[in-house]
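Incident log entry.

Two folding requests arrived from the same account within the same minute. Monitoring flagged them as a possible duplicate submission, but the sequences differ. Recording both here for audit purposes.

Request one:
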Amino acid sequence: MNQYNKNIINRIKRAEGQMRGILAMMEDGKNCSDVVTQLSAVRSSIDRAMGIIVAENLVACVNDQEMDGISKEESVQQAINLLVKSR
């Protein structure tokens, strides 16, 4: 079973398309404020995707790690650290 639903995969594909668009903007010499605005939008999109992945898969991830000998508390802390570190 795929742990990532179609919605999250589509979000990542959309961000990938946005990145290609940003590269094209840069290659075309577009205004730097427009490029930064688009980069900010991609960053926000990726942050939301990360939050969704952690929220939707937290229980499964914790259970998997517990089977590997990692406590639930440590697993949850690792998930929190991933989210906080990315900001």
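Request two (distinct sequence, not a duplicate):
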Amino acid sequence: MSKLNRRDFLKLSGCSLIGMTLGSVALRANAEVAKVDPTSPQASALKYVHDSAVEGQNCANCVYIQSAEGDWRPCALFPGKQVSANGWCSAWMKKA
């Protein structure tokens, strides 16, 4: 049985921690982000819909949207989920 000295242990631990961190970041980047379900309690409370019926108001021009591209984008009101760029909710606020 070989002995593992302190220096080797720290190198191995550090490399393992870095590998796990980078691996989880890569997995999250490739994972499909869930879309907001309009029937969920939070979406219902905000009256979220995938297609806006209010002219000139949609998620694409709302201050809460967190991306400038794509049909589905992250929204600050729905962490970890994406909203339709054409969607709308009662918290809509014009982007400056």
